[in-house]
Design brief:
Elements (H helix, E strand, L loop, with lengths): L2 H19 L17 H5 L6 H19 L4 H21 L1 H4 L10 H24 L5 H25 L6
Length: 168
């Protein structure tokens, strides 16, 4: 087992535990909930097996669903962002992604922030749409999506900065 796989396993377990034990209990003003567990999907190595990655994303969402009794909304949102991740990577990083040479620790902060923002917003939109599942509450869905996305993006950026080992 190489260090990349070991780091991925540790990140998977730690993010699920942090989400379930700490972040699921945070609820600001009824609309702001942080979901930094999706950092596993955002920072998963680019050149790994895509089928395994989508399966791990499903398992990540399923574990969060099991612990938070949310009926599969996290699993659906995680699988969706895992599936659409390649075009978002291409949009955010351009030619670096084309050559499969992205190391998230070495990317520009602006590109990383765009990448995080797009996937976090899509994840939250899908999750809150499925959670509320009522077209008459579209304003509530958009409100929860916007505010939770902002908070999650800030949290993910801080976590990725704090735990990165920059190599240039």
């Amino acid at each position: 087992m190489n260090s990349v796989n070991l780091n991925s396993i540790i990140r998977f377990v730690v993010l699920i535990l942090a989400q379930v034990l700490v972040f699921s209990n945070i609820n600001f003003m009824g609309t702001i909930n942080p979901y930094p567990y999706i950092l596993f999907i955002l920072l998963f190595p680019i050149n790994n097996n895509r089928t395994l990655f989508i399966f791990l994303s499903f398992m990540l969402g399923l574990f969060v669903d099991l612990f938070s009794n949310s009926g599969g909304v996290h699993a659906a949102a995680c699988v969706t962002i895992a599936f659409i991740r390649p075009p978002v990577l291409k949009f955010a990083f351009g030619m670096v992604y084309e050559h499969q040479t992205i190391k998230f620790n070495n990317t520009e902060f602006g590109n990383r922030l765009i990448y995080f923002s797009i996937l976090v917003f899509i994840h939250h939109l899908i999750m809150f749409t499925l959670e509320i599942f009522n077209i008459s509450n579209i304003i509530l869905v958009l409100q929860k999506t916007l505010f939770s996305s902002i908070f999650t993006i800030i949290l993910c950026a801080l976590i990725s900065i704090l735990f990165s080992t920059k190599q240039r």
